[in-house]
Specification:
The complex is a heterodimer of chains A (229) and B (275). Chain A is α/β, with parallel strands linked by helices. Chain A is 34% helix and 26% strand. Chain A has nine helices and nine strands. Chain B folds into two domains: 175 residues, no CATH class; 98 residues, no CATH class. Chain B is mainly alpha-helical and 275 residues long. The chains are: A alpha/beta (229), B mainly alpha (275). At the A-B interface, α2 and α3 of A face α1 and α5 of B. Chain A: This is ABC transporter ATP-binding protein.
Chain lengths: 229, 275
């Protein structure tokens, strides 16, 4: 379980995160929803130790951040973060070199699934192809959790379908997934839990299935309640 | 340890073309300069001989004298390499933050202690320095061979490589004759790189206000290093301390500056850095 407890973060004299607490369970897809600038990406970065927080605690399976966390939690940022001069094959090699949790068979499967050419240079990839390769790097390791920042933004329809297919496949099933999005539409049926953020605070945190069956509301209905009361 | 070495390999691999270009430039510039100089000198001697039936008064040509006569050709690429490495001391960090691929995300998420990233970048940079210095030494032997090949035996006067190095001011600084001098020059250089690394990490951690902090940090380090020399004096006869004592203090301060900078760098990278 990823536990975020009362984290606060200041940036240029204002709080971008204020007492944010939530949990993301293993075996579930948790979605951080919010408008641009609500602090979604900052939370993911804070969980990965890529930006410091002022106060609060982040625990992964009860442990604080440390180098072993990076074997356990994979992060797919909103852009590909590999040197542009590298070939795809070199990028895969790099990951295999550094991560004990790297699973080369799965990487190969994913490369085949997304129809990527490993001889291509990373700098030459189109945005959508780069996003696919980014997913390969995030999903190939045998990590227990995967964090994804806007996995669907700026990607064409067919590629979106492919990525959505990955979400409902066994690649994700066992793991805990925490992702952010500002366009909930096509994600709605995939997610188990939604955390709605507003101005650096948690507006609502709920189980999608429960809200759907008990109150008959969709995630978008709840979002409307939070954003347009 | 293993991952540290892999990181070092990666950093060197990323700079390989640039290093090759710098080496190539140095070789071409120095060899062209040397050959042009030697040809004109030899020609002058032969034309003098043809005209007057005897060699000019200072007819002997030694490798050392040839290097003395080609100061610029030898110094410019060396200075250029130094400038490139100084620039790269900054780029080695900033290139990971800027541009389309922000590789620093990946580096910080590697399942290894973050100090390995710092150490790998430092090791890579020191490797580049000594690779270029070593290349210059090899190049000098090659150039000596070119000299022997170009200048006819009757005009050649023997000289040692060491004399040749002394003949060029930049080379004499780059390749000091005494090991002690070598240690000082490169020790101070590496200390400067470490202080610069820490300043960069301060800026990357605190951003805008970090520039001010970094400037203060660099100024403090500079002051600490220069302070004993100015206060106690090292060449004054009326100084309160013996030169050896001032030297000892200086060494201690340098070790302190290096330790504090490295410690601070590790700490910032582990706790404060932001992408």
């Amino acid at each position: 379980m990823i536990e975020v407890r009362n984290i606060r973060k200041r940036y240029r004299m204002r709080y971008v995160l204020q007492d944010v607490s939530f949990t993301a369970e293993k075996g579930q897809i948790t979605c951080l929803i919010g408008m641009n600038g609500a602090g979604k990406s900052t939370i993911l970065k804070a969980i990965m130790g890529l930006t410091p927080v002022k106060s609060g605690q982040i625990l992964i399976d009860g442990q604080p951040l440390g180098k072993s966390v990076y074997e356990k939690v994979a992060f797919v940022p909103d852009h590909l973060t590999m040197p542009l001069g590298m070939k795809l094959s070199e990028g895969l090699r790099f990951m295999a070199d550094f991560y004990d949790s790297w699973n080369p068979q799965r990487a190969e499967e994913l490369i085949r699934f997304f129809k990527l050419d490993t001889k291509e240079r990373i700098g030459n990839l189109s945005k959508g192809t780069a996003a696919k390769f980014n997913l390969v790097l995030g999903l190939a390791p045998n990590s227990e959790y995967v964090l994804m920042d806007e996995p669907f933004s700026g990607i064409d329809m067919f590629s979106r379908e492919m990525i959505a297919e990955v979400f409902s496949s066994e690649l994700i099933e066992e793991r805990g997934v925490l992702l952010t999005t500002h366009e909930i539409g096509e994600m709605e049926h995939l997610i188990d839990r939604a955390v709605i953020m507003r101005d650096g605070k948690i507006g609502m945190d709920f189980d999608c299935e429960q809200v759907r069956s008990e109150e008959g509301k969709s995630v978008i209905d709840v979002m409307r309640e939070v954003y347009l009361p | 340890m293993n991952r540290y070495l892999k990181l070092v390999h990666m950093e060197i691999y990323r700079f390989r073309y640039m290093l090759a270009i710098l080496m190539g430039l140095t070789a071409v510039c120095q060899i062209v300069g040397l050959v042009l100089y030697l040809n004109s000198e030899v020609q002058y001697r032969y034309s003098h001989f043809d005209k007057f039936g005897q060699w000019p008064d200072s007819n002997a040509m030694s490798f050392a004298r040839a290097l003395f006569g080609t100061q610029g050709w030898f110094a410019i690429p060396v200075v250029l390499c130094i400038a490139a490495l100084i620039l790269y001391a900054f780029l080695i960090w900033y290139r990971d933050w800027f541009g389309r691929s922000t590789f620093i995300y990946r580096l910080l998420m590697l399942p290894t202690a973050r100090r390995h990233i710092y150490l790998a970048k430092l090791t890579a940079l020191i490797t580049f320095i000594f690779a270029l210095v070593g290349f210059q030494l090899v190049l000098l032997s090659l150039e000596k061979w070119i000299f022997a090949f170009t200048v006819p035996a009757e005009l050649t006067e023997h000289s040692y490589i060491a004399e040749a190095i002394e003949a060029n001011r930049v080379l004499a600084t780059l390749l000091p004759r005494s090991f002690e001098q070598f240690m000082y020059a490169y020790g101070i250089g590496i200390m400067a790189v470490i202080v610069a690394f820490t300043a960069i990490l301060i800026e990357r951690s605190f951003r805008l206000i970090g520039i001010v902090y970094a400037a203060f940090y660099v100024a403090a380090c500079l002051l600490a290093v220069v302070f004993p020399i100015y206060t106690f004096g090292i060449d004054r006869s009326n100084a309160y301390l013996y030169p050896e004592e001032v030297f000892g203090i200086e060494c201690l301060i340098c070790i302190l500056v290096i330790s504090v900078s490295v410690w601070l760098g590790f700490r910032l990278l582990a706790k404060k850095i932001t992408v």
